[in-house]
Design brief:
The complex is a heterodimer of chains A (about 220) and B (about 260).
Chain A lengths: L5 H31 L2 H32 L4 H35 L9 H21 L2 H26 L10 H32 L9
Chain B lengths: L16 E12 L2 E12 L3 E5 L6 H7 L10 E9 L2 E2 L7 H7 E4 L10 H5 L1 H5 L5 H14 L3 H4 L12 H14 L4 E5 L7 H14 L4 E5 L3 H7 L2 E6 L2 E7 H6 L4 H7 L5
Parallel strand pairs in B: 3-8, 3-9, 6-7, 7-8
Antiparallel strand pairs in B: 1-2, 1-4, 4-5, 9-10
Helix pairs in contact in B: 5-7, 7-8
Classes of the chains: A mainly alpha (about 220), B alpha/beta (about 260).
Chain lengths: ~220, ~260
């Protein structure tokens, strides 16, 4: 029997999807800002962060309301627990996009950077993996969720390559420009976006199958 | 004697405080059952009264349509107003009040008659003979009570052959047939299984589009699920009255917190 309060779970899912789409938009936009040096785009991304923060608070409130008032059981409990974590990860994605925007503005202030290392490629994969994680949640697709876990490794690898191409294996910073240091921060933020996508995928696996794959070797 | 003008609930305008309980006290003989209760109930909302046994919640509910008048040696102080008019106004017919304020009890109490006759009973009492009108009211009321589909092919069977959940919905249909503006429900699900309880709760959620509903329940989960506002009573006193979300998520009074979290007593 479908109960009237089940509509609130649908609303919660919709809010999470909205958060996801906004975080993904921010990531896409900020990558374009890094690649083109478009400061207005970077500033726009920084302005979008508050909206995602507000959505996270709304999602948290909806979860608390549902837990308190409607006595959820079974898969509804899994959805509420997963939603809390997914909401947090999406808010962190938006934060990372905002950090990238800030670094992009600093780089831009110092003049255009010709060598962006592997950041564009890393960013492209980070966006693809985040999209995949969101789709796995929207569609309840286990295969997509498991693919996210595999592809996150590609982002980690490019982040490491960025570091090594600048500092070598010795970590020597003497000849590295300040702008490239900013770029390394950007690479690290993209790597974190990959981690958050992975966390979301793990929650989708928990939600769909009940299996807890966190902290397990992939 | 004047009669209260009965208006269809749907004709009422914006949501306003519809029932106003003002500094209300109540005695059974020398025993004070309610003390200084003051709360306003907005129209077309569900308000739940919760509290341990003997806290006065049913007593207050039964005062809203003066059902307690049937008890010997009672008295009250303060006032209860419905749509800005005192229910103790000497010019008011109690029968008329009870027509406006329908009641559903803990134990379903269908008459030993057919399903059809149960629903149209009140109309028969006031002399309605028009068969088409009776049939229309019967169908409309059963539909509103979410029972029509289950009984439409056996309207003339005895109501006593229905299940417990169906009997309770029949009693709700019977109350609705009288075109009340307010529905009082005194633990309407306490004798029902979880599926029948779910159906009654769904019904309450739908009925609030048209009726102001006051429900007494021992189930805090039920109060949380179905009501917009909740009042918590203890030893005849109103401890806290607020939105249901506030009462169950972050109540102002430590006594309320203790009661809803099971730490009371």
């Amino acid at each position: 029997m479908q109960r009237f309060f089940h509509d609130e779970l649908r609303q919660l899912r919709d809010d999470l999807i909205l958060m996801g789409e906004r975080s993904l938009d921010m990531t896409r936009m900020v990558l374009k800002a890094v690649e083109t040096g478009d400061d207005s785009l970077a500033l726009q991304v920084r302005g979008m962060d508050d909206r995602v923060d507000d959505l996270e608070k709304r999602v948290d409130r909806e979860i608390m309301r549902y837990l308190t008032l409607f006595g959820p059981m079974g898969s509804d409990v899994r959805l509420l627990l997963a939603a809390r974590d997914i909401g947090h990860d999406l808010e962190r994605v938006a934060d990372e996009a905002s950090v990238i925007a800030k670094r992009s503005l600093v780089i831009s202030e110092r003049g255009p950077l010709k060598n962006l290392l592997h950041v564009p490629e890393e960013g492209k994969i980070a966006v693809e993996v985040l999209r995949l994680a969101l789709d796995s949640f929207i569609e309840g697709d286990l295969e997509k969720a498991r693919l996210v876990l595999k592809r996150d490794v590609e982002i980690d690898s490019l982040n490491r390559k960025n570091y090594e191409s600048l500092f070598g294996h010795s970590g020597d910073t003497a000849k590295v420009s300040a702008s490239h240091v900013e770029l390394i921060f950007i690479s690290k933020a993209l790597e974190r976006i990959g981690d958050h996508s992975k966390n979301i995928a793990e929650q989708v696996i928990f939600l769909t199958s009940g299996e807890d794959v966190r902290h397990s070797r992939q | 004697m004047t009669r209260l003008k009965v208006r269809p609930s749907t004709e009422r305008g914006g949501r306003k405080d519809y029932i106003s309980i003002k500094n209300f006290g109540f005695w059974y003989g020398s025993k004070k059952a309610l003390e200084s209760i003051s709360l306003d109930i907005p129209e077309r909302q569900v308000v739940a009264f919760i509290g341990p046994s003997g806290c006065g919640k049913s007593t207050l509910l039964r005062n809203l349509n003066r059902m307690n008048d049937l008890v010997d040696n009672i008295r009250h102080e303060g006032d209860i107003q419905i749509d800005s008019r005192s229910i103790y106004d000497p010019g008011l017919e109690v029968i008329s009040l009870r027509r406006r304020v329908g009641m559903v009890f803990q134990k379903s109490n269908p008459f030993p008659k057919s399903i059809f006759e149960n629903v149209v009973y009140a109309l028969r009492v006031v002399g309605v003979r028009d068969r088409a009108l009776l049939e229309e009211v019967c169908e409309t009321s059963l539909r509103k009570a979410a029972l029509w589909d289950e009984v439409k092919d056996r309207l003339h069977d005895s109501a006593l052959g229905l299940s417990g959940g169906q009997m309770q919905r029949l009693c709700i249909a019977r109350a609705i047939a009288n075109r009340p503006e307010i529905l009082l429900m005194d633990e309407p699900c306490s004798a029902l299984d979880p599926i029948a309880t779910g159906k009654i709760e769904e019904l309450i959620h739908e009925l609030k589009e048209q009726f102001t509903i006051v429900i007494v329940t021992h189930s805090m989960q039920q109060a949380a699920r179905v009501s917009d506002r909740t009042a918590f009573f203890y030893l005849g006193k109103q401890v806290e009255y607020d939105t249901t979300e506030k009462i169950f998520m972050n109540p102002s009074q430590p006594q309320t917190e203790a009661y809803i979290s099971g730490r009371f007593g």
